[in-house]
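Q: My labmate handed me this sequence with no annotations at all. I'd like to see what the chain might look like in three dimensions before we decide whether it's worth expressing. Could you predict it?
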Amino acid sequence: MSDRAKRAGPGSAADRQRVFVALWPTPEVRARLRVVSDDLARRAAKARQVEAANLHLTLAFIGSLEAELVPELSTRVHSCRSDGFDWVIDRAGHFEGARVVWAGGPPCAPLVDLARRTRAMLDLMHIGYDRKPFAPHVTVLRDVARWPAGEFRISPEIAWPCKGPTLVRSEPGPAGVAYVPVTARSGSC
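A: Here is what I predict for the chain of 189 residues:
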């Protein structure tokens, strides 16, 4: 245990990690999303672009979790694979309340099933998560109070090959927060 963790005591922030379960894009999808994000940023004054390395599709947001649970959760998340499918990103829009611009597409059945299975696994492990209905999207811009462009089409569409979820840890740093996939051990869902 680190000196910081010892000083902080049990149950402190030093003993916890901020995590979420996500689909992690391929380098090709990440590059295409960055091009879309650059285009959208030109339409929104003062918007903050999400760093390309942080782009993802959240299946379940957990938040603060005991650090000792992270390795087991990572193993279980990693083993929740699917046969593979493509999720098509074909539009962008704005969530006014959250003040974000998103890129997304229709919720295909395999994607909805993967989110359902991921959340069921969290329920079985008694791990709490944000229970908002699953709305497949990738946040590309933040701090967007007004969005005059409305919802519009992304052309050409982005086909995102999906195989399974990844547990991702949020790591604060001097340049902001970085999202880092947690490496999994072998195991079953």
